[in-house]
Structure formats: structure tokens, C-alpha cells
Amino acid sequence: MRLIFMGTPDFAVPALHALMAAGHEIVAVYTQPPRPAGRGKAVRRSPVHEAAEAAGIEVRTPARVRRDEAEHEAFAALNADAAVVAAYGLILPKAMLDAPRMGCLNIHASLLPRWRGASPIQSSIVAGDTRSGVSIMQMDEGLDTGAVLLEEATPISLSDTASTLHDRLAEIGGRLIVRALSEQPQPVPQPEDGVTYAHMLKREDGRIDWSRSCEEIDRQIRGLTPWPGAFTMLNGVVLKIGAATPRPEIAGPVAGSALDDALTITCGTGALRIDRIQKPGRSMMDAADFVRGQAIPAGTRFD
User: Does 38 score more than 90 pLDDT?
Assistant: First the structure.
């Protein structure tokens, strides 16, 4: 088929590669414009931009598309059979949704209608879901409300982080979009029951509330790794927590207190043994290395 591909982050790259490997003609790739990133704020192109350019595909980077009629006309002039959208980052207006012969198909990282919105991968882990998956959806003007063509589930293990689940779902998405274009299944409207929304994540979402249970905090850490990251405060210093082990059998005094000198911290119920931790300006390190350089005696309070 003659396809337009629209995506920006790493999640979208396996789908682009899968479509090319399946023999589809990618007539153009739309992605977010290059932006400053990292500590040095150097201007960087998106992962999809890099992948498309390496493949010799035309790349378009409009900053806005919703009310740009010239962009709508240019999009329609590509005369595509379909547009495939994967975490593009811009809302498409009706003029663009309707332009391809088969419309626009979205690769969404959840089993719709659960976790519509911006952060489905992280939200599924934080909420304690036992499974996630990918839905191939016929896009409409709503927020992830379109009919579903195909879906595939995958279990969420107690060791999964947003990073590991992201990579698994990205690979599923590439495989599933190829199937959807080949089989062209009948779209099935989403049920009205079971709708949940995954909000846009902010840095403050990572702040640990030690009054919650050790299992909830563990899910927060895993669900927000690598971004925005879970963190706590010690004497006004931000400490990022990269991994921890819940210890529900342990009871302690006030939540947020160190129970020993090895970074076991009490929670609302149970305790959490910190396994990986990061100081500002430093790399993530094992907790044993951290306490060798900075003693954390029993009774130390974390905020």
C-alpha cells in the first residue's frame, strides 16, 4: 500500500521498520520538529526522523497541523491509501483524518477502552494491571475513541518497568499494524464500560508518598522508570529511586523512616528495600555503593 507514517518517539520506530519490511511504500513520514534535549540542550531530531532519513524517506516536521489548511492540502496530495499513526504527538483534524482512502490507523499501547490518552504504558503498571497490549484503532476526532481493528495482549510481570513493557509493546505494534493492513478486519466499536484515561505525566507524579503501601510505591517506581522517574527527598536533596523490593511482611514506625543502614524504608504498610538510587548529577548506582559513600542510619526520615 501507499502509506503515510506519523510518529515521533522510539515506540514508533519498530512499526515503521515493519511496514517497510512488509513491502509497503512509505511516501512521507511526519514527525515532531527537532527540539533541544539533554543536559546540553542540543537540538535533536526524533527517533522516527532518524529512522526515516536513514531509509531515504521524505520527512515532514510541521509544528502544528490542526488549522493549517496548506498542510491539509499537502497531506491529501500524497494520495495515500492509509496513514499509520504511532505516538505522533499532534492532534489530527478531520481534514487529515479523512484524506487517505482507508483513513488513519493508530497504534495505541493499551487494550482499549482502558487507558485512552497520553501515558497508557506507565498508567497500566502504576495501577497494578496484570496485562497490557496494543490496539490498532480507526482514528476519529475523539481522544482514542475510534473503533478497534485488532488487539494483542501481553502480561505485565512484577518485574516489568515502563521501559521493558514499552519495548515489548512497540514490537507488538509493528507486527499488528502489518496484520491490520493485510487482513483489513471489520472495525469493532469500543464498549462504553471500562473507559479509563492516562493523563500527561509531570515530574511531580514521581514524588513518593511513603504513607502508601510498599506494593503501590513499587509500582510507581517501575511504572515511572525511566521517565519521569520516582523520587524522594533527603535533607532537601532529590534522590531518584531506580529499583526497589517490596517487603510487605515488615512493619515499622513512622512511614518514610529508615529501618536499618541498608536503605530499607517503612511505608504505610510494609517496607521497601531500595536497590538502585541516584544522586543529583550522578549516575544510577546500587544502594550498597550509595550507603558506602553516605551513611543512612536507622531512623533517618525521607520526605
Answer: no
Give the tens place of pLDDT for each residue, 105-131. 999 999 999 999 999 999 999 999 999
Rounded (5°) CA angle 83-92-68: 110
In which residue are the cell numbers 524504608 written? 265
| 37 or 104, greater pLDDT | 104
Cβ neighbours of residue 158 under 8 Å, at least 6 residues apart?
A: none
Does the pLDDT of residue 253 top 90, yes or no? no
C-alpha cell at 272: 521497601
Torsion 44-49-51-54 (CA) sign: negative
Give the integer Cα–Cα distance in Å for 91 and 145. 13
Amino acid in the structure at residue 228: P
Res. 242: pLDDT tops 80: yes
Under a CB-based contact definition with an 8 Å cutoff, are residues 203 and 228 in contact? yes
Gap between the Cα atoms of 33 and 49, Å rounded? 9
Q: Tell me if 16 sits within 8 A of 48, measured CB to CB.
A: yes
On the 0-12 / 13-18 / 19+ scale of CB atoms within 10 A, 141 is: exposed
> Dihedrals φ, ψ of 109, to 5°?
-85, 55
pLDDT number for residue 40: 75
